[in-house]
Design goal:
The protein has about 325 residues and is of the alpha/beta class. It is built from 14 helices and 10 strands. An 8-stranded parallel β-barrel has the order 3-4-5-6-7-8-9-10, surrounded by 8 helices. The protein has a two-stranded antiparallel sheet with strand order 1-2. Bound molecules: flavin mononucleotide.
Length: about 325
């Protein structure tokens, strides 16, 4: 499938996940077959102040292509300027966040709060499209709450305003990340649009990905939490849907070697102090389902040096 002029080869994208899906993790997922990745959300206001934090979040490497930067905000002109500024990081695509439920984002009228004002969604999309020469996409939810389910309306307005694709997370803002996502909403949006639709919510296995494509007709699936500590989900999806090489079950030895590779890259990019602090949650996700997982997770919570992680992994019987 294509998003604008950008070819996406494969079946599954990595979802934007602030604080988790950073450059190290995105590169790893691409290595395992992710067809497309979206960076962590970045404040449109922060970008225009040229903050160091924004610059770090915007950075994309050659090992993670095609890739999007994702912007949040609620002022069309600020979003347009931020999009223009972000082009220096060479994104293949610019995505607009219309789904974040967090109070500090949605409480300020950005993220999912934009869906309460479909006309503003259109004006932001149009302003961003008119300032950049890369495809612009939007990521929406089912609606704000159960009394305002308007994904189809918002998606159509964004398409009309120039969006090249729409990602639909089948939950309202009120539902945050639970209960299960409404895939029928994704089907309804797909039916109503002519641009590609990316389906998101509750893909935790290759079978889930195949089921979502079958039930919704979406052009691409997007995996969020199902990829945490589990980047090989992309290999498994490509194997099941694309009939790539059969994907063998992941052994404990592979789990450990991928964890070490992931954290080594994380430390390289962010320095050992920050890298190892972030390694605690990643390690816990990799350890899920392993023998003595509870004890491993407890030990992961105290990691401070990369060497500590090597020692911890040596203690695991594979
Ligand atoms: C830790 C975390 C951070 C997230 N950060 C973002 C973000 O920056 N931008 C965004 O559009 N969605 C964000 N999301 C939402 C995911 O992209 C995705 O829509 C959601 O997790 C549902 O997909 P899943 O069921 O596969 O996890 C985040 C989700 C999680 C769990």
């Amino acid at each position: 499938m294509k998003i604008g002029n950008v070819e996406i080869k494969g079946y599954a994208a990595l979802a934007p996940m602030a604080g988790v899906a950073d450059r190290a993790f995105r590169e790893l997922c691409v290595d395992f077959g992710a067809a497309y990745v979206v960076g962590e959300m970045v404040s449109s206001k922060g970008i225009t102040y040229d903050s160091k934090k924004s610059a770090e979040l915007l950075e994309l490497s050659d090992k993670e292509r095609p890739a999007a930067v994702q912007l949040f905000g609620n002022e069309p002109d600020v979003m347009a300027r931020a999009a223009e500024f972000s082009l220096k990081y060479k994104p293949d695509i610019i995505d607009i966040n219309m789904g974040c439920p967090a109070p500090k984002i949605a409480g300020n009228g950005s993220g999912a709060a934009l869906m309460k004002d479909p006309d503003l969604c259109g004006r932001i999309t149009s302003a961003v499209c008119s300032c950049v020469d890369v495809p612009v996409t939007v990521k929406i939810r089912k609606g704000w709450d159960k009394n305002s389910i308007n994904a189809v309306e918002v998606a159509k307005i964004c398409q009309q305003a120039g969006a090249a694709a729409v990602t639909v997370h089948g939950r309202t803002r009120e539902q945050q990340y639970m209960p299960s996502a409404d895939w029928d909403m994704i089907r309804q949006v797909k039916k109503a649009l002519t641009i590609p639709v990316i389906g998101n919510g509750d893909i935790n296995s290759a079978e889930d990905a195949a089921a979502m494509i079958e039930k919704t007709g979406c052009d691409l699936v997007m995996v969020g939490r199902g990829a945490l500590g589990n980047p090989w989900i992309f290999r498994e999806i490509n194997s099941l849907i694309g009939h790539d090489r059969p994907s063998l079950p992941v052994s404990a030895a592979e789990r450990i070697s991928v964890l070490l590779r992931h954290i080594q890259t994380l430390c390289e990019y962010k320095g050992e102090a920050i890298g190892m602090r972030e390694a605690r949650k990643h390690s816990a996700w990799y350890f899920k389902g392993m023998r003595d997982a509870a004890s491993l997770r407890r030990k992961a919570g105290t990691l401070t040096k990369f060497d500590d992680l090597i020692e911890l992994c040596k203690m695991i019987n594979v």
